[in-house]
Amino acid sequence: MTHRQADPSDLKADLDRLTAFLSPLDRVVCLTGAGCSLASGIPTYRAENGDWQGRNPINHQDFLEDFETRQRYWARSFIGWPLMHTAQPNPAHRALKDLVAIGLVGTLITQNVDSLHEQAGLTTVQHLHGDLTEVTCLVCGASEPRTQLQTRLAKLNVDLALDGKLQPDGDAEIPSEVIQHFKIADCLLCDGTLKPNVVFFGGQVDPTLVQSIYRSIEQADALWVIGSSLKLFSGYRFCRHAVTFNKPIVLLNPGWTRADPIAALKIGQPAEIILPKLLDRLTNLTQ
Ligand SMILES: [Zn+2]
């Protein structure tokens, strides 16, 4: 679990600025990234691209064409799944649910592949990079819950010293001799190749979804990005779109973001600390 701190004096000033910026607005489009799930114990390097690799991201085409790439993905996913599966929403997710409820956030898009916004009670979350709850057969299109697949993988690999409880840190790689022996599971209906419903590097974000987000931005008062460095173009493009339509961008992220130079407001606070306070301020204002 990650516990981030905020300087109390900065926090007060930042809260004032964020409240002043958002309170006159009717409706904003919100894009959340890995920083939003950090306090739930999901490391950002894993969550941001929808895979577990950190330094060696899985390439979409390699996953389709190369058995060893799929073996590497599933071995790592098998080990990382329990952490993802047991993660709980944090105060940022809960505050965002209420910011949707009071109408400030009209559309919520996430780059995260976890389901923590849904677990916090949101029903209409748009997953830019897909999510990990199901896998799909690339041959017949059948889908299977990821939890069920985990059980099958565990049975197939009962002889390997992998019980799914290991959690390699950023520097720990699974030894290649272990990956070589990892048995991957195929579609239960047709033995076809299974793929998680996430967008890998080199894969395409659903163009219909991108267009619908563009329309939402055009109709909103602002674009609010929370917990993302926007390093990937898949998220950054929405900032460019906002600029084109003269919609202000507000950023909430403790670190650098690619949109810093074009933002109307940048707040460097952890989402799980400032969002509940912001919610308090905004609900008191409307009462
Ligand atoms: Zn199939």
Describe this structure in words.
With 287 residues, this protein is of the alpha/beta class. It folds into two domains: 1-42 and 89-128 and 204-287, 3-Layer(aba) Sandwich (Rossmann fold), CATH 3.40.50.1220; 45-86 and 137-198, no CATH class. Helix content is 41%, strand content 15%. The protein has eleven helices and nine strands. Strands 3-2-1-7-8-9 form a six-stranded parallel sheet, sandwiched between helices. A three-stranded antiparallel sheet has the order 5-4-6. Helix 10 links the parallel strand 7 (222-226) and strand 8 (249-252). Helix 5 packs parallel to helix 11. The chain is elongated. Mean pLDDT is 89; it is low at 47-53 and 164-171. Bound molecules: zinc ion. The site of zinc ion (ZN) has 8 residues, from loops. Zinc ion is lined by residues 137, 139-140, 142, 187, 189-190, 192.
